[in-house]
Specification:
It is built from 5 helices and no strands. By secondary structure, the protein is mainly alpha-helical.
Length: about 230
C-alpha cells in the first residue's frame, strides 16, 4: 500500500526545488528583460501552488495523526520534515523578492550541503530512500496488524468461553427449575396424604367409640337378663 502523504511530499519538495532553480535562472537576467519578467510570473504561480501543497500536507498529517494511521515515531519524523519545508518556503519568498549573489548565498547558507534542508533524517533512516521508508512503514503496519489479529483471537476465545459458560448456566437453571417443580408436586402430594391420614384417623377413633358402646350395651343386657333367669 502506497503512502499518498509521502508521494505528495515528494512532489511538493520537487516543486520547491524547481522554484529555486527558476529563481536562480531569473536572477541571471536583467530586471527589465523579457526572460526575467516571464520567469518571475512562472515563479509567482509556482509559489502559490507550493504554498497550497504545503497546507495540504499539514492537513493530511493532522488527519493521519488523529486517526492513528501512523505511529507516533513516524508523526514526529514527518513533523520535522514539515517544519523544514515551511522554513524553506519563507526562504523562497525572500529569494523571490530579492536578487543578487548575497541573497542567494544567504538562502544557501545554514550549515548543510542540501539547500532545502528537508532531507535531514534521524540516523536510523540515513541512506534509505522513499521506497525504503514506505517499506519500513508498511512493516510497522504489518506488525500492528499481527498484534491486532492476536488480540482479536484472544477476544474471540474469551467470547466463546463466555458463550459456553452462559450455555452451561442455562442448562443448570433448567435442571434447578425441574427440581423445584418436582419438589412442589411432592409437597402438594404430602399435603393431600396428610389430610387423608387425618380423616382416616378420625374415622378410626369414631369406630372405636361405637365398638365400646356396643360392648357396654351387650354387657348391660347380659347383666339384666342373667338375674331374671336365676329367679325362675
Amino acid at each position: 500500500m502506497t503512502d499518498s502523504w509521502l508521494l505528495d511530499y515528494d512532489r511538493c519538495a520537487q516543486l520547491g526545488q524547481d522554484i529555486m532553480e527558476k529563481i536562480t535562472e531569473r536572477n541571471k537576467h536583467n530586471r527589465t528583460s523579457k526572460p526575467y519578467t516571464k520567469l518571475s510570473a512562472q515563479v509567482r504561480s509556482s509559489m502559490k501552488q507550493f504554498s497550497g501543497d504545503v497546507e495540504k500536507l499539514k492537513n493530511g498529517l493532522i488527519r493521519a495523526t488523529s486517526s492513528y494511521h501512523i505511529t507516533q515515531r513516524e508523526v514526529d519524523r514527518r513533523q520535522g520534515m514539515m517544519d523544514k519545508l515551511i522554513t524553506k518556503e519563507k526562504h523562497l519568498e525572500t529569494a523571490f523578492r530579492n536578487e543578487g549573489g548575497e541573497s542567494r548565498a544567504g538562502l544557501m547558507a545554514g550549515g548543510s550541503d542540501d539547500p532545502w534542508g528537508v532531507r535531514e533524517e534521524p540516523a536510523e533512516f540515513h541512506g534509505i530512500g522513499n521506497m525504503g521508508l514506505r517499506d519500513h512503514q508498511q512493516q510497522i503496519i504489518r506488525e500492528q496488524d499481527r498484534g491486532l489479529d492476536a488480540l482479536s483471537n484472544v477476544i474471540s476465545r474469551q467470547k466463546n468461553m463466555a458463550l459456553d459458560i452462559g450455555n452451561e448456566v442455562g442448562q443448570q437453571n433448567e435442571i434447578l427449575d425441574d427440581i423445584i417443580d418436582h419438589t412442589d408436586r411432592t409437597g402438594q402430594r404430602l399435603i393431600k396424604e396428610t389430610r387423608h391420614i387425618r380423616i382416616v384417623d378420625r374415622k378410626s377413633a369414631t369406630c372405636g367409640f361405637w365398638v365400646v358402646i356396643i360392648l357396654l350395651f351387650v354387657a348391660i343386657i347380659v347383666v339384666a337378663v342373667v338375674p331374671g333367669g336365676k329367679s325362675l
